[in-house]
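Can you make up a protein sequence with its backbone structure tokens?

===
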Amino acid sequence: MKDTLIVYYSLFENTKNLAFEIAKQTGGTIRELIPDKKYSFDYNTACKEVRSEISRGFCPKLLSGNESIDDYKTIFIGTPNWFKTLAPPVMGFLRQHNFLGKTVIPFCTHGGGGFSQIEDDIAKECSEAVILPGLAVNGIVAPEEVSNWLNSINFKL
């Protein structure tokens, strides 16, 4: 759908795979958030980097993905669950845009923590948007899981 945007940040491909499945089923435009400094591909090192950024409220500069959202009515926002909240590049994206009159639909990938605070954090940053129930996926995304979720929130092409 021309007025639907799927924005995501993914370090290890899980959130990217979910974003692409959502785009496939909705016809939306996909946009990857790319921070100016890449996180380590070593899991333990990346955890230290991310924990530090989250505790400081740091949001990295985005090299890509931060373009205008004015032409979109519905915005799916995807993030991995990092320490019970959004990945810092996603928080940075949220803080740089006005969501007045938009419909925001969160999605996340996780290793067992579900959404934790992610939906609440998105609602706080997008207080002028309509927030629909999101999808939290543990592991590999099943296409039918996405289609069932889209049906449950009455998302129509």
User: Anything to note?
Assistant: The chain has one domain: 4-152. The two ends are 6 Å apart (CA to CA).
